[in-house]
Design brief:
Structural class of chain B: mainly beta
Largest interface: A-B, 25 and 25 residues
Radius of gyration of chain A: 13 Å
Helix content of chain B: under 10%
Distance between the termini of chain A: 37 Å
Shape of chain B: globular
Strand content of chain B: over 45%
Number of strands of chain B: 11
Number of strands of chain A: 11
Number of helices of chain A: 0
Helix content of chain A: under 10%
Structural class of chain A: mainly beta
Shape of chain A: globular
Order of helices and strands of chain B: EEEEEEEEEEE
Largest sheet of chain A: 7 strands, mixed
Strand content of chain A: over 45%
Radius of gyration of chain B: 13 Å
Order of helices and strands of chain A: EEEEEEEEEEE
Oligomer: heterodimer
Chain lengths: ~120, ~110
C-alpha cells in the first residue's frame, strides 16, 4: 500500500518548451504533496509544497512562474516546467504523506528531465 | 532554518566490513527517517524512529535515535554489495511542520 506513481520517468525536451510531470497517489488520498529536485550524487532539495485545492508554497529561490504546480485532486499533483532551459535538466521527485503516521512519506520513482 | 548534518558523504568499503552513518542537528525533530535510494529511482523508506533513545533493527541495519531527538545513526553490519546506494536521513516536525529536512546523503559503495 501507499504507492506514489510518477510519470514520465524520463523526458527529453527542446529548450523553450514546457514539460508536465504527474504525481499520483494510487491507494491513498494526499492532501499534501512535495516536489523535490536532485542533482547527481546529491541530496534532495525541496522545491515546493503542493496543497490540494490551494496554491502551492514555494521554497526560497524557486521561481513559481517557472515551476507551476497544480494539485486539483486528492490523488494528483502536477509540476510543469515552463520555458525549459538546459539548466533545468535534473531529477525531479515527488512525495506524499502516506497517512501512516510517524511522519512517513512515500516517494515517486522520479523523472529525469533533459533539456536540449 | 533547520539543518541536518550527515556524515560521511562518501564511504567505500569491502564486503564484510561494518560502517556507521551519522546525522546530527541542533534542532529537535518529532521523528527521523532513513531512506535508501538507487540511481534513477526515488528514495525508499527504511525506518522511522520516533522516541528519544529508540533503537530499531532491520536485519543487518541498526538505527538509533538520540535521547534528545537531535541526532541519529545507521549502522550496517557485514556490508554486502547489495547495500550499495545513497543513504539519506530526514527529520520531520520541529519548526518545519509537514516538511522533511534532508541530510546531505551518504554514497555507500561496497566492493565484492
Amino acid at each position: 500500500g501507499a504507492v506514489v506513481s510518477q510519470h514520465p520517468s524520463r523526458v527529453i525536451c527542446k529548450s523553450g518548451t514546457s514539460v508536465k510531470i504527474e504525481c499520483r497517489s494510487l491507494d491513498f488520498q494526499a492532501t499534501t504533496m512535495f516536489w523535490y529536485r536532485q542533482f547527481p550524487k546529491k541530496s534532495l532539495m525541496l522545491m515546493a509544497t503542493s496543497n490540494e485545492g490551494s496554491k502551492a508554497t514555494y521554497e526560497q529561490g524557486v521561481e513559481k512562474d517557472k515551476f507551476l504546480i497544480n494539485h486539483a485532486s486528492l490523488t494528483l499533483s502536477t509540476l510543469t516546467v515552463t520555458s525549459a532551459h538546459p539548466e533545468d535538466s535534473s531529477f525531479y521527485i515527488c512525495s506524499a504523506d502516506n497517512n501512516r503516521g510517524e511522519g512517513g512519506y512515500t516517494f515517486g520513482s522520479g523523472t529525469r528531465l533533459t533539456v536540449v | 532554518t533547520q539543518l541536518l548534518e550527515q556524515s560521511p558523504q562518501f564511504l567505500s568499503i569491502q564486503e564484510g566490513e561494518n560502517l556507521t552513518v551519522y546525522c546530527n542537528s541542533s534542532s529537535v525533530f518529532s521523528s527521523l527517517q532513513w531512506y535508501r535510494q538507487e540511481p534513477g529511482e526515488g528514495p525508499v523508506l527504511l525506518v522511522t524512529v520516533v522516541t528519544g533513545g529508540e533503537v530499531k533493527k532491520l536485519k543487518r541495519l541498526t538505527f538509533q535515535f538520540g535521547d534528545a531527538r537531535k541526532d541519529s545513526s545507521l549502522h550496517i553490519t557485514a556490508a554486502q554489495p547489495g547495500d550499495t546506494g545513497l543513504y539519506l536521513c530526514a527529520g520531520a516536525g520541529g519548526t518545519s511542520y509537514g516538511k522533511l529536512t534532508f541530510g546531505q546523503g551518504t554514497i555507500l559503495t561496497v566492493h565484492p
